[in-house]
Design a protein that fits this description.
alpha+beta; Heat Shock Protein 90; 5-stranded mixed β-sheet; 10 helices; 5 strands; about 10% strand; transmembrane; Sensor_HK_TwoCompSys; phosphoprotein; transferase
Length: about 400
Amino acid sequence: MSQPSAPTPAGAGRPVLERWAPGESGRRTARDWTVDVAAFVLALGFGAFAFGSRLAQPGGVPDGLATLDLVGGLVCCALLWWRRRFPAALALLTGLFGAYSDMASGAGLVALFTVAVHRRWQVVAGVVAVNLVSVLVYYRARPDPDLGYVAAATVAASVVAAVVAWGMFVRARRQLIQSLRERAQRAEAEQAQRVEQARETERTRIAREMHDVLAHRITLLSLHAGALEFRPDAPPDEVARAAGVIRESARQALQELREVIGVLRAGPEDAAGRPQPTLADLPALLEECRRAGTRIRSDVRVADPSALPLATGRNAYRIVQEALTNARKHAPGAAVDLVVAGAPGEGLRVRVSNPPAVSAPLGVPGGGTGLVGLAERAALAGGRLEHEVGADGRFRLSAHLPWPAPVTAVPS
């Protein structure tokens, strides 16, 4: 049986961390607020330190350039509010500002970290290249008096590489956690689905067992009620006997109906353990049918019915029960021939046949699924079931069920 596909966890199929993450509704969580404020303060503090250090150097900075540096850096820090939604664009913008602005350096590092966390490595590589070019332009236009051009550019590039490496590490860790979470959710969903499938399979099995029993009881009721209807002048003792059978069959049918309804409501794990019939119970079934007026010629050639495997004996019993039920429904008054034979290693054979009806059918409604259920039961047990209506109108049903030979111990 093919297993239905498990439900896909929310977010599966989308690139991991390739989406803005303040929550599905777009609102920032308390953690997002904390991180964003910390990033803004960090960028502002780092930029102010770099800007102040540059102003304190000999020669200073022209007033116009200092004002542009300060304003551009503050704008970049303010734009960090949208760093999660547009990380690559913000990183490129801060990189361009970084070509002349010290105040924007802190915002540029935060933007680079955000890109490394939320975007693929191809995007990260492109943004890093732009920022490295910006570093080279900055130190060419505004050389550091304490360090040479190469040394200053190397230090700045090392800082950029460290920030990007840290961001990519965080990204990889988040991907791993998200993958493990989705795998756990998928495993839980599949486990729940397997449990539900097992529950439904068990309920179906129990319902099929109850169908077989209820169909048998109801046909007995219909048979005796029909006899009373068409023979109102029957002797009192015969009427009393038929009424007793009707009462007992109705009581048993109601009890079994309560059981199946309870099973289907509460689940198979809560159902009371009902003993299942086996081939050893076949004589009682035949006697009950004979008391109901069904003529049965039986030939049971099984040396020890209790030696049958329980599943095989139960399936054989249900096949005979359903065949007798169908005979009473569709061919009332006709004699039924039954042959049950078999031995270990040969299998168990069940053959039931009856001629056409000698009186009008009982009119008991049926879904036409009894024989289908029997064929499925036999197939699941590793056997087969066939039925046909011959040219003479005689209905024949034959089934073959496996009966393994006992395993003999090999002397050591």
